[in-house]
């Protein structure tokens, strides 16, 4: 179904996110016939480019996996305006261009540093561009703590009300995350078991092989907790742990997610040393290549920014009391993999002889990337004669095999949801605040401890303390898949 004609303006239009993710996502939706030909997509940045120059840059990116004539047709929708959010020059013209069709859906995507948000919104307000069917999209992380997030939300909120504000977390657009909803609430099988009585613990791993590379300027002020855990991983945790919403209506879902965030047990200076591990990568290898350490990339030998974090989180409510959620994420780990593992409790009593082999616990493994897949690990008898020997095997649902074509990128779905005005998969202001309320005391405890993050060699699974964090509890990180 094509969406209504729209204008989409990307501030930070020459940046990495715009060129690598947003514009290719729009191209793919266009090539699939979902974007009407009279829509407009406008990149904005300070660079003095013109439409043609911008299209040339974009063409280079799109031709890699696009169809030549469709790329050209798409590029006709694309334009560029050099604008500085802090100066008036050019804004009049831009406003006139946008006003040509003031009844249109207008999306302003702020893919810039958050310290420009208020200037951009000010100008949009000054030129009345925040009126009508206008929407604003904010990239994560929203701020670097609760106070700065509130400031941003207040500043943007002076020009766009909550229903116009789309706080994006691209993990919510990933296919497997949507599948989590289908799996949990479309099957009778799991929900009765989805609680502390039957689930032993949960693991969420988001591992990357990349280092911080070009993004060191941003990353060094953020670190893994702000960059990945406060948003992506907590959002995954919410989808996994929330009570069944009464419908998929945006606020029905977001109300339930909010309750999870508010039920997270506080981690602070009293327990951060037991419940969290911070790491920072040193030189080592990534995908067979020798790579430098974080501090070398930064050219600063003092940074205490973490590039790895592991946390033992708990949700203090009836459903989840006593069930640990082990979370870990890091750069320069041995493979790129994002996975949620739900480990069920052991059977209460084994009827098998020791010779049958160990009786493993059932696991449900939801893999988000690199390839989408859901595996349910079950115990069966090893086939054939030779007595009753037990084996742990997966019931395997690989999406690529089952459904062929590659799944659309998360941004494809989310950008069209903004155009459609559907905020279900976007973070409401109170969710962002609740997530910071949990993250802030952890960050404060780390800062107060005066300790540096633990070093780990690039190409390993982080500091050994992260292994100890889970093994202390008699459990291990999932390696089955
Ligand atoms: C971004 C983070 O939000 O997500 C990056 O800022 C990270 O540091 C990226 O690399 C990971 O996204 P994906 O979709 O590749 O898992």
From TrEMBL:
SUPFAM superfamilies: Glyceraldehyde-3-phosphate dehydrogenase-like, C-terminal domain (SSF55347), NAD(P)-binding Rossmann-fold domains (SSF51735). It is an enzyme of class 1 (oxidoreductase). Residues 9-179 form the Glucose-6-phosphate dehydrogenase NAD-binding domain. Residues 181-478 form the Glucose-6-phosphate dehydrogenase C-terminal domain. GO terms for cellular component: cytosol. The keyword Nucleotide-binding does not apply. This is Glucose-6-phosphate 1-dehydrogenase. It comes from Dyella telluris. The lineage of its organism: Bacteria, Pseudomonadati, Pseudomonadota, Gammaproteobacteria, Lysobacterales.
């Amino acid at each position: 179904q094509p969406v209504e004609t729209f204008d989409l303006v990307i501030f930070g239009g020459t940046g990495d996110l715009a060129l690598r993710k947003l514009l290719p996502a729009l191209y793919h939706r266009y090539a699939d016939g979902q974007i009407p030909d009279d829509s407009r997509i406008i990149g904005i940045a300070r660079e003095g480019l013109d439409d043609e120059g911008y299209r040339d840059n974009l063409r280079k990116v799109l031709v890699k996996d696009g169809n030549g004539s469709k790329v050209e047709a798409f590029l006709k929708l694309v334009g560029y305006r050099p604008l500085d959010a802090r100066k008036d020059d050019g804004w009049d013209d831009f406003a006139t261009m946008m006003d040509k069709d003031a009844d249109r859906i207008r999306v302003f995507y702020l893919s810039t540093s958050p310290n420009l948000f208020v200037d951009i919104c000010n100008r949009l307000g000054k030129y009345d561009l925040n009126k009508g069917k206008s929407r604003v999209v904010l990239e994560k992380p929203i701020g670097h703590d609760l106070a700065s997030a509130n400031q941003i939300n207040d500043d943007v909120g002076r020009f766009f009300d909550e229903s116009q504000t789309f706080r994006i977390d691209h993990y919510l657009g990933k296919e497997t995350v949507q599948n989590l909803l289908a799996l949990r609430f479309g099957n009778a099988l799991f929900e009765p078991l989805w609680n502390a009585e039957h689930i032993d613990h949960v693991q969420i791993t988001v591992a990357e092989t990349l280092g911080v590379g070009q993004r060191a300027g941003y990353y060094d002020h953020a670190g893994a907790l702000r960059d990945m855990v406060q948003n992506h991983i907590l959002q995954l945790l919410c989808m996994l742990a929330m009570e069944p919403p009464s419908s998929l209506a945006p606020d029905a879902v977001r109300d339930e997610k909010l309750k999870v965030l508010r039920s997270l047990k506080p981690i602070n200076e009293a327990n951060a040393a037991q419940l969290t591990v911070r790491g920072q990568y040193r030189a080592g290898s990534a995908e067979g290549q020798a790579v430098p350490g974080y501090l070398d990339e930064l050219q600063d030998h003092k940074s205490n920014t973490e590039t790895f974090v592991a946390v033992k989180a708990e949700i203090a409510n009836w459903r989840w009391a006593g069930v640990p959620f082990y979370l870990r994420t890091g750069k320069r780990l041995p493979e790129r993999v994002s996975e949620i593992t739900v480990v069920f409790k052991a059977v209460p009593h084994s009827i098998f002889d020791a010779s049958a082999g160990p009786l493993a616990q059932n696991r449900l493994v939801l893999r988000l990337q690199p390839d989408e897949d859901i595996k349910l690990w079950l115990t069966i008898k090893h086939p054939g004669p030779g007595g009753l020997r037990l084996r742990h095997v997966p019931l395997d649902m690989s999406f690529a095999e089952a459904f062929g074509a590659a799944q659309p990128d998360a941004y494809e779905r989310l950008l069209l949801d903004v155009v459609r005005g559907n905020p279900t998969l976007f973070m409401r202001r109170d969710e962002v605040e609740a997530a910071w309320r949990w993250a802030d005391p952890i960050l404060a405890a780390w800062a107060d401890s005066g300790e540096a993050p633990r070093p780990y060699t690039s190409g390993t699974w982080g500091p050994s303390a992260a292994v100890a964090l889970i093994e202390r509890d008699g459990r291990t990180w999932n390696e089955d898949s």
